[in-house]
Automatic annotation (TrEMBL):
Name of protein: Peptidase S8
InterPro entries: FN3_dom, FN3_sf, Ig-like_fold, Peptidase_S8/S53_dom, Peptidase_S8/S53_dom_sf, Peptidase_S8_Ser-AS, Peptidase_S8_subtilisin-like, Peptidase_S8_subtilisin-rel
Source species: Raphidocelis subcapitata
Similarity annotation: Belongs to the peptidase S8 family.
Residue ranges annotated for the Fibronectin type-III domain, each copy included: 1423-1531
Length: 1532
């Protein structure tokens, strides 16, 4: 971004703008809260300095919240400058090569050197070329900054706030508009930018999961995450590292050792196991992967006291550490927490701190070995309030910083951003020097994933492995792709391009470490030309998914001298044996030499091999191995590959162990161990303690050696042994052990009668449980004390015991003693003795009544007990014992009760029982009377009858003595006659059809009456009528046994009508079976065979009346039979392939059609059948002499077809047919393509020598002329399309003169063979090239081209060039064909012609196809007076119209317009949208009139509009403005 673009200013409007910005600054100061005080270094609170103080920020100061929004940051800076208050700006400077050269010369002159010399005189300190260039660049940076700031206008209001000495960037404080304008217009200034904030580009699962379960629980389960606030992925880096080939690369020796990665992020919790469990940076040296950690802030001594502000940096750094297994990590924290106006906080990084971190890296890179930076952070570009993809941004300050880093030998992997954009990346990924990284999934996820919360960024409805994530920003200048969703490392599970970037940073570190002499461009090229190509469906951009091993192998192949690596014992740090195993990997090597020291020349050389056993030198200590490689030309690698390991063959000494200072016994299993021992390397000494004997290898866990340790002995009394193993880092071990006796205090428990609460006898059973180590027990009825207790005896589990006499609560006390005569207890148990049974038990029913008509009665109960609260009762309708009675319930004086069913005398039995089980009983009687009842059914429950004479089925209830039947409900009193009940009774229903009822009344012995019981039946004496039946609609014939029956008939009660169908006639309807519900149609199966078939129908109504009908049809289901086939009247041979076939057959319905085949096993299709005719002319198949067959399949008039054909045979005997020959194309290429119209036909086989004549044609017509045979024979194809082609080749041998028949045929028919092949004579066609955008203009030379071509053999490659007069022969490079191609134009502005050439699979090359591309960086211009703008309002909308011709562009055409609008105010820029500014697109109509209708406006409201023009390259102009008001709600 140039200075003028960052802060647009127009001289004619400057005063008005400054006044407006002053007001805006006041509004912003009111709208955004101040930060809360934070603890100062001394622990107290420190208030923030005033916003306008201009003083330097103290340690821990936080920037105002408004810098979170780039647009607000810019507005705030402008407002402060307008009010002559200081605003801090990031300024980048243009440092030219001549500036640097000038400084090199000055340095050289001061040293007395020529500028090109690499070393100072002997008397001076040596100065390398790299140091000279670094010093010259620093001085050039300083000189350009000084030159700009010393100019008069700049001096009036610009001062250096912070100088980033290694970069052409500085933080300036500017407090005047004049100074700002001077900076913007200075030719040595590249950009002037507001001090904005950056965010991390990773999404975590720890506090607020970004994964929404919009597509089912499978989304999270597939990731191995529980989905809660503490979600963790169980698979760690199991998928992502193999996806990029990291394990294989490490196994090949590519570990990143010697190249440190600076992770510019939120810091790193280096205590995490993934980072080596460091106690502080670099410690312990054996495991710690973080060699330095530093907070970057304007105040150099700033430290926020946190290892990591959020866990993001730990996750990113851990990915680097796991992927590059021996790279060191430099953790740089640039993020801090800032206050939110809502009372919360947000995490951001200051632009100045990020640039400062890059500056710090360049200062420390040689000291710390830094060769790669990772930046998992970014900020999107904005169009108004909308996030948009950033174009390439070479002039931004951070881009200048990354370019300086790359020039100094440090590559930066940068996350592309998580905004889901496909038209650009975020800042700083847009920097040309950045290796920008997009994200892919490393595993499939069932159900898909949704990303982002309020609002949702995007949704991947399906997720498969290697799919580009929808949140990943993408564009043509993206560099590579890497796994980024989801990644668990450093105790954090996160997803985003933040997690993809460290995979690439690790890969770059591996390449830089392994190939120190290779250029940075070579490392990036290896990264981008290997791996798997993946295409983003959103924009068709294709980029590689990185592969670490492939990239390393690619660089190794390009090395001019042999290079390689060596690992000892798989990379182990220690060994206890001098004999080790070397794993050696090299490229370009034919020989190698292994040595214990780096000495030249190395001898002896031996053939290169990937593994070798090696003997280390004597003595413990660090040992080195050096491997020199030599290629076939004799070139030796320099320096050699090397590795080191520490030899320790001496076991730890003096192991000793004591427990509790050597005590003999202990009463507690918690003991203190005293441990001693030493080793040659005490820092790595470990120990393992066990309660069981074990080996050094099996003992676990090992922990760092400590002189004392708390320990828990195993449970249980007795002798205990603790075993100690000491083990050093090399695995040498020594052991010791110690013993102690564990005593247990005697204890136990007791229960009486299994824990019962009551007993009715003093004789009880004690249940005694003695604790561990108890040897004796003593029982007493009182707490007499253990010393006074008598009769100590061995403890038993069950003991009979006598309680003291008398009812009441009784106690038992048990004391315990161990082998050491220590006593414990007492264990106690309580039980209540009650030996007195309840008294006065009595029971009465319904107050002593003699009888009842209801089984529900009321019982009166009485009785008492010594313990009335626990008295229970049990009631039963049958006599039982107290023990068997159930259930018991609390005593109650009254209770509702149900007598058993049935009339007669009933007895109720009562038991009273107290808590101790004592019982007493009583009983009472009553007589139960039952009301008379019963039931009746007619004809056993039938629903219908066809006669009024029926049988009643009567069931009389219990106690019924008489019954009375009537046809109407006359009542029991009027019913006559009464008689003894019978189970079956003949009865006459009333005359007439319809529903009839029967009523039965009942009487018991007490003359009580009940009922009536009722039954209903319907009388139907009329049979069904109009019975009819037809088969297949009355057809005469049926071809199959399955037919359709049409059935007719009706009845007075159609719902009860049934039918029965049968293939045999029955004498009566009752004999037919089965009956089913009547249906008007039914599928029926006729009897098999041929002939006439009859179906018989019976209709029967619900009352059993019936009617019948029948129908017949002729059935033919068999194919023609007795088929005979005869060829040429039964002749044995034929010299002609044209024969006559006679066919005879018989069939019930007659033969109708036939199918004739001449190939064995050939099947007849529908189209093969023709009308039957005999004889039939048939063409036999051509080919070798011998048997020929004719197969005939016949079909009758009803479609019955023979299952197998009939056949006949004849012998084809033509001596002119050669035997055992095949034909092929002799001049087809290796892919099987014929690329010349002259086809060479080759004949092979044992019969090829007998061929004398040949006839070739391009269709199957008969040969008209033969030519003498030449092998191969050339045939020139007629013109035709590329693709499938065919020739028909007829070969003929000489015919003996004696064969007159064949002589008459002109020498015989010969053998005709088809010859199929693929032809490709032409280059690719339908070639096209154009900008992917569909326009002819672009704003950048980095373009995406759409290319297309077709070819029968496939389009293999494409070559694109903008070189004038280029040809296919001169065009380079050729690349794999893909519909979308990235290309960089040579010209940075203006018109260019792009040529595309295409090559097919057979190397035919097309002529060039051209596209004109115009690079247009200029913005459209519009003048209001030429626009003829008009506004037509309504109460809810305003339609704007204007002339398209009022907007012009210097290079490309104006292609469109959009309108920005807001209430009351006019939007002040086309490129930035404020919070309340909205956008509507315009439409260009006829006559160049443009219109846009703004809807959903408020009535009577004034609005400001800005009409913005867009040219074909996408550049947006400044726009023209207009104000207009909507009509009121009344239309005024």
């Amino acid at each position: 971004m140039t200075g003028s673009a960052a802060f647009p200013a127009r001289p004619q409007r400057r005063k008005a703008l400054l006044l407006a910005l002053l007001v805006l600054a006041q509004l912003l100061a009111t709208a955004h809260g101040k930060r809360q005080p934070r603890p100062a270094d001394g622990g107290g609170l420190q208030a923030p300095p005033l916003a306008d103080s201009g003083a330097a920020a103290p340690s821990g100061r936080r920037l105002p919240k408004r810098f979170r929004d780039p647009a607000l940051a810019e507005a705030d800076a402008l407002a402060r400058i307008a009010a002559n208050q200081p605003a801090e700006l990031i300024v980048s400077f243009k440092v030219s090569k001549s500036d640097i050269k000038q400084q090199e010369s000055q340095i050289a002159n001061s040293l007395g050197l020529a500028a090109a010399d690499a070393a100072a005189p002997a008397a001076a300190e040596p100065l390398s070329k790299r140091a000279l260039r670094r010093e010259a660049r620093m001085r050039a940076n300083a000189a350009v900054k000084q030159r700009v700031l010393s100019r008069r206008a700049a001096r009036k209001g610009a001062r250096l706030k912070r100088d980033f000495t290694m970069l052409p960037v500085a933080l300036l404080s500017v407090n005047s508009s004049e100074a700002l304008q001077a900076l913007q217009s200075d030719p040595s200034v590249a950009s002037v930018e507001p001090r904005i904030m950056f965010t991390i580009t990773g999404r975590g699962l720890r506090d607020q999961p970004p994964l929404e379960r919009g597509f089912g629980d499978g989304a999270l389960k597939a990731l191995g995450v529980d989905g809660g606030g503490g979600g963790r992925r169980r698979l760690l880096l199991k998928e992502s590292l193999p996806m990029i080939g990291a394990p294989e690369a490490a196994a090949a020796g590519y570990t990143g050792k010697g190249c440190a990665v600076a992770v510019i992020d939120t810091g790193a919790d280096y205590t995490q196991p993934d980072l080596g469990s460091c106690t502080k940076p670099g410690q312990p040296a054996a495991t710690c992967r973080v060699s330095a950690a530093h907070d970057i802030h304007l105040s150099d001594d700033y430290d926020d006291g946190e290892l990591d502000d959020s866990g993001h940096g730990t996750n990113v750094a851990s990915i680097v550490a796991r992927a590059a297994t021996e790279s060191q990590i430099i953790a740089l924290d640039v993020f801090r927490w800032f206050d939110d106006s809502g009372g919360g906080q947000f995490l951001s990084a200051d632009y100045a701190d990020i640039v400062g971190a890059i500056d710090w890296v360049l200062k420390k890179k040689d000291e710390l070995g830094i060769c790669v930076i990772n930046m998992s952070l970014g900020s999107p570009c904005l169009s108004g309030n909308t996030k948009v993809g950033c174009p390439a941004c070479p002039e931004r300050a951070i881009a200048q910083a990354l370019a300086s880093a790359r020039a100094a030998g440090v590559l930066a992997a940068v996350a592309s951003g998580n905004d889901g954009l496909s038209t650009g990346l975020s800042i700083p990924a847009c920097a040309p020097a950045a290796v920008s990284v997009g994200a892919v999934y490393d595993a499939a996820v069932a159900g898909g994933l949704q990303w982002g919360l309020n609002p949702v960024t995007c949704t991947d409805r399906t997720v498969v492995k290697e799919q580009i994530a929808c949140f990943s920003n993408s564009f043509s200048y993206l560099t590579v792709l890497a796994p980024g969703a989801m990644i668990t490392a450093g105790g954090q599970t996160m997803g985003g391009t933040s997690q993809a970037s460290p995979h690439v940073a690790a890969t770059l570190a591996v390449l830089r470490a392994a190939f120190k002499n290779a250029t940075l461009d070579a490392a990036v090229e290896a990264l981008t030309t290997t791996g798997k190509a993946l295409t983003d469906p959103r924009n068709s951009v294709t980029k590689p998914l990185i592969n670490m091993l492939q990239a390393a192998n690619k660089m190794a192949e390009g090395a001019s001298i042999p290079v390689g690596t060596v690992r000892i014992n798989g990379g182990a740090q220690w060994t206890s044996s001098r004999t080790v195993a070397l794993v050696i990997q090299a490229s370009g090597a034919t020989q190698m030499c292994v040595a214990s020291e780096a000495a030249a020349p190395c001898t002896p050389y031996e053939p290169y091999t990937t593994s070798k056993a090696w003997q280390l030198s004597d003595g413990d200590g660090e040992k080195g191995v050096f491997v020199y490689f030599k290629n076939a030309a004799g070139t030796v690698s320099d320096p050699p590959a090397n590795a080191s390991i520490t030899l320790d063959a001496t076991a730890p000494s003096g192991p000793a162990l004591s427990i509790n200072g050597g005590a003999q016994s202990t009463s507690s299993p918690q003991v203190t161990l005293a441990i001693s021992g030493t080793d040659n390397n005490p820092a790595s000494l470990q120990m393992c303690l066990a309660n069981a004997q074990t080996t050094a290898e099996a003992c676990t866990p090992y922990e760092p050696f400590a002189a004392t340790k708390n320990h828990t002995l195993p449970a249980g009394a007795g002798s205990k042994t603790v075993f100690l193993w000491l083990r050093d880092a090399a695995g040498n071990a020594a052991s010791a052990q110690a013993q102690i006796t564990l005593l247990v205090v005697p204890s136990g428990s007791v229960a009486i009668n299994g824990g019962a609460v009551w007993t009715n006898t003093p004789s009880v059973i004690l249940n005694i449980t003695a604790g561990e180590g108890v040897t004796e027990a003593c029982v007493a009825n009182t707490a007499v004390d253990a010393a006074a207790c008598q009769l100590w005896e061995a403890p038993v589990a069950s003991k009979a015991w006598q309680l003291p006499d008398g009812d009441g609560e009784k106690g038992v006390f048990v004391y315990f003693k161990n082998a050491g005569n220590e006593t414990g207890g007492p264990a106690t148990a309580i039980i209540t003795l009650d030996a007195t049974a309840p008294s006065g038990a009595a029971l009465s029913i319904d107050g002593g009544a003699q009888s009842t008509s209801s089984p529900q009665v009321t019982l009166a109960i009485s009785g008492t007990d010594n313990n009335p609260a626990s008295l229970q009762m049990c009631l039963s309708n049958a006599q039982t014992t107290a023990e068997a009675c159930t259930p018991y319930e609390p005593f109650a004086a009254t209770k509702n009760h149900t007598l058993p069913a049935g009339a007669g005398s009933k007895t109720v039995f009562l038991w009273l029982r107290d808590a101790a089980g004592n019982a007493a009983s009583a009983q009472a009687q009553i007589t139960l009377l039952v009301a008379p009842s019963g039931s009746v059914a007619i004809n056993s429950g039938a629903v219908w009858t066809n006669t009024p004479s029926v049988i009643l089925n009567i069931t009389a209830g219990e106690g019924v003595t008489e019954a009375c039947v009537a046809n109407t409900a006359v009542g029991a009193a009027a019913c006559q006659p009464w008689e003894a009940p019978v189970a079956s009774k003949a009865w006459q229903l009333p005359d007439g059809e319809g529903e009839k009822g029967v009523f039965v009344y009942f009487k018991n012995a007490g003359n009580e009456t009940g009922g009536p019981a009722t039954a209903i039946i319907t009388v139907d004496s009329t049979p069904p009528v109009n019975a009819s039946l037809t088969i297949n609609g009355g057809a005469e014939w049926a071809a199959g046994t399955d037919v359709n029956l049409t059935i007719g008939g009706s009845d007075n009660y159609p719902a009860g009508l049934q039918m029965c169908l049968t293939a045999t006639q029955t004498a009566a309807a009752g004999e037919c079976t089965p009956y089913e519900a009547f249906a008007a149609s039914k599928v029926w199966q006729l009897l098999a065979g041929e002939g006439e078939r009859t179906v018989f129908l019976w209709l029967r109504d619900a009352a059993g009346s019936s009617a019948g009908a029948s129908a017949s049809i002729k059935l033919d289901t068999q194919a023609p039979s007795g088929v005979a086939v005869s060829i040429n009247g039964g002749a044995a041979e034929t010299a002609s392939l044209d024969v006559s076939v006679a066919i005879t057959a018989g069939d019930f319905s007659g033969v109708a059609s036939m199918c004739i085949k001449t190939a064995t096993g050939a099947l007849c299709s529908e189209g093969d059948f023709v009308a039957f005719a005999s004889p039939a002319a048939v063409k036999l198949p051509a080919g070798a002499l011998g048997a020929r067959y004719v197969y005939v399949t016949l079909r009758d008039a009803l479609g019955n077809t023979m299952s197998a054909p009939a056949s006949d045979q004849i012998t084809y005997n033509d001596p002119s047919v050669p035997s055992d020959v095949t034909v092929s194309v002799a001049n087809a290429n290796s892919n099987g393509w014929v690329t010349s119209s002259d086809v060479l036909i080759a004949v092979s086989g044992t019969g090829a020598a007998s061929v004398t004549e040949i006839c070739v044609r391009e269709d199957e017509a008969a040969c008209t002329a033969f030519s003498p045979f030449v092998n191969p024979t050339k045939y020139t194809l007629s013109s035709g399309p590329d693709g499938d082609r065919a020739l028909f080749v007829t070969l003929r041998t000489a015919v003996p003169p004696a064969n007159g028949t064949l002589s008459a045929l002109g020498g015989g028919y010969g053998l005709t063979l088809p010859l199929d092949f693929m032809a490709d004579f032409n280059p690719p066609s339908n070639t096209r090239v154009s900008l992917s955008s569909g326009t002819g203009s672009t704003a950048t030379p980095h373009v995406s081209l759409a290319v297309a071509a077709t070819d029968v053999s496939g389009v293999k490659e494409v070559c694109i060039t903008d070189e004038p007069e280029a040809t296919a022969a001169s065009c380079q490079p050729w690349r794999d064909f893909n519909p979308t191609q990235s290309f960089t134009l040579a010209s940075s502005e203006g018109a260019s012609e792009v040529l595309a050439f295409f090559r097919d699979g057979n190397n035919h090359v097309s002529s060039g196809v051209a596209a004109n591309v115009t690079i247009d960086k200029s913005k459209p211009k519009a003048k209001k007076r030429n626009m003829d703008m008009k506004a037509t309002p309504s109460s809810s909308s305003i339609t704007l119209t204007w002339s398209k011709d009022g907007a012009t562009d210097d290079i490309s055409d104006v292609s469109g317009f959009f309108v920005l609008y807001r209430p009351n105010y006019t939007p002040n820029s086309c490129e930035r949208r404020r919070k309340r500014t909205k956008l509507v697109n315009a439409a260009i109509g006829a006559g160049s009139i443009v219109s846009a209708t703004v809807k959903d406006l408020k009535p009577g409201k004034r609005y400001g509009f800005r009409v913005c023009a867009v040219d074909a390259a996408g550049n947006v102009g400044g726009g023209v403005t207009l104000r207009a008001s909507t009509k009121s709600a009344r239309g005024k």
